[in-house]
Amino acid sequence: MHTLLDFDGNLPAYVNSTNGKTADNKGAYDVTLLKGSVIVADCFYNDFSLLNVWDSKGVFFVIRHKENLQYVTIQEKGLPENLHQHIMKDEIIELKDQASKTKFPNKLRRVSVWDQENEQIIELITNQFKWSPNTISELYKSRWQVEIFFRDINQLLHIKSFIGTSENAVMIQIWTALITILIHKAVKAQFKFDWYLSNLVAFIKLNLLSY
Question: What phi and psi, each to the nearest 5 degrees, are found at residue 52?
Fold first, then answer.
């Protein structure tokens, strides 16, 4: 499921279901994005042709780059003292590898962030040069909502077996599960109690045929 999750409400604004052979970044080419949008994604979307398409359309991105990224530092920006100590580096770069540079000829901003919880360095690239490095890091941190969304689908509405084996039958069952979880989230948003989705599902099952 190639999914565009809207930050406002953490609900999908776009979903395209394909076979397992379609890579994450290839599915992203079909997503229609408005100018000024901000896309936050993991390193699987570190596709410079895709990033160039987004950049040319006025779409901003914050992407975790791969460890083997080859680049040249054009400018290293100063970091504010005694503030946002988790920001390790903020610099302007150009891609060094000729093949990558052909796909994305423009400059990029590279921000290194220390992830205290997982004790690792997270290295990000973006085409947004005006926001603070802390804003860039907070944007990437919000990407975890994608994992939460798919966790809900996999754990709470997991499909143990398929009723039919044709492509159409499989798609119907997947879309039915997706519609179900969206209805649950809509109902949960109207409740006065802050229940987990699993509690809500159990409550509906118990009271489905009761007054």
Answer: -70, -35
Segment holding 168, helix H or strand E: helix 167-190
DSSP letter at 43 equals G
Among candidates 95, 76, 102, which has minimal Cα distance to 87?
76
Longest Cα–Cα distance in the chain = 68
The three-class DSSP label of residue 66 is coil
25, 44 in Cβ contact below 8 A? yes
Q: What is the pLDDT of residues 125-150, one digit of tens each?
A: 999 999 999 999 999 998 888 888 88
Q: Side chain identity at 140, as an amino acid letter?
A: Y
Q: Whole-angstrom distance between the N-terminal and C-terminal Cα of the chain?
A: 37
Q: What is the pLDDT of residues 69-119, one digit of tens each?
A: 999 999 998 887 777 888 999 999 999 999 999 999 999 999 999 988 888
pTM summary value: 0.81
Contact 23, 45 (CB under 8 A): no
